[in-house]
Amino acid sequence: MTRTVIESQTKTVVIGFDEPFCVIGERINPTGRKKLAAELEAGNFDTVVKDALEQVACGATVLDINSGAVFTNKMAVDPRYADNNFVEPGLMKALIECVQGVTDVPLCIDSSVPGALEAGLQAAIGRPLLNSVTGEEERLELVLPLVKKYNVPVVAISNDDTGISPDPDVRFAVAKKIVERAADFGIPAHDIVVDPLVMPVGAMASAGQQVFALVRRLREELGVNTTCGASNISFGLPHRHGVNAAFLPMAIGAGMTSAIMNPVRQVEMEAIRAANLLMNHDANGGEWIRFSKVIEAVEGGLSFSEASSAASAATSGRRGGRRARA
Questions:
Q1: 3-state SS record for 134-183
Q2: Any residues with CB less than 8 A from the CB of 292 and at least 6 apart, and which?
């Protein structure tokens, strides 16, 4: 059975067909977050710390760390800051060191800059997930050697030099190409986590059906784990969280094993917890029972984040010091 192992210094997360759905928290990402980007430019990591702790409390078992910031003020003074190859390696190192200082969950190192990926790999303790490689020839030649050198799993995104195809058969072919090229480097299929690319259902009515079929095919024919940017499905629609909450259990039922998403949303996390229970990935319903206490606290007036943090603190106080399965 395919098992993708991700580790921090003290915790192990396994992404797999018979494992609970892996929630990869997406919040530590300055792209589109001007306030966070400005804070990072000023050397202020307070929001990063808050986002890390909050996401873990709410149910993220892996944290995505994205270094794609634009430092507008520094750029005006020093033109080197206009180049992400200059900005991101140092920022990635700082972000990872910050997050590792406040939480012990495994990390997902997320950048389009190879230098930032390697800086993250050097700073990360354990066995992080690398995000990402595509089917583009240049990207394959730059990223796969890093995957092999550091012996880490990698997210494989199903686009290539021709872009993102609306045809699911083409996206499957790109994923197959990446798996085969990875094998040439000695990288096993169980260390490839394929993102089949979720299209917005508001723009493509068959987007959900496409992904469910692709996930089944990737599992059955290539034997790989899968992930996605979960909120892409609802892009441009009203009441996006309702759509996301319907999409996630359906994707899980089709065989998807992880998602990069915002865990600080009760409706989506409730859907995932229930799906784990129904898929028999929650032994004796223990996680659902614990989650129900969070919901009761929310009904009593706490926010989902507050209730989750209180429950997490209570659980942490009862744990010992051995390596934990997240």
A1: ECCHHHHHHHHHHHHHHCCCEEEECCECCECCCCHHHHHHHHHHHHHHHH
A2: none
- 24-33+52-69+84-311 topology per CATH: TIM Barrel (3.20.20)
Tokens of 59: 């149910």
Least Cα distance to 185 among 145, 129, 140 occurs for 145
Bridge partners (DSSP) listed for residue 63: 25, 107
Give the span between the Cα atoms of 4 and 226, in whole angstroms. Answer: 10
Predicted confidence (pLDDT) per residue in 127-182, tens digit: 999 999 999 999 999 999 999 999 999 999 999 999 999 999 999 999 999 999 99
**Please, are residues 218 and 226 in contact by the beta-carbon 8 Å criterion?**
yes
Q: What is the pLDDT of residues 187-217, one digit of tens each?
A: 999 999 999 999 999 999 999 999 999 999 9
Count of beta carbons in the 10 Å neighbourhood of residue 234: 21
CB 222 within 8 A of CB 194: yes
| Amino acid in position 118 | E
282-310 tens-digit pLDDT: 999 999 999 999 999 999 999 999 999 99
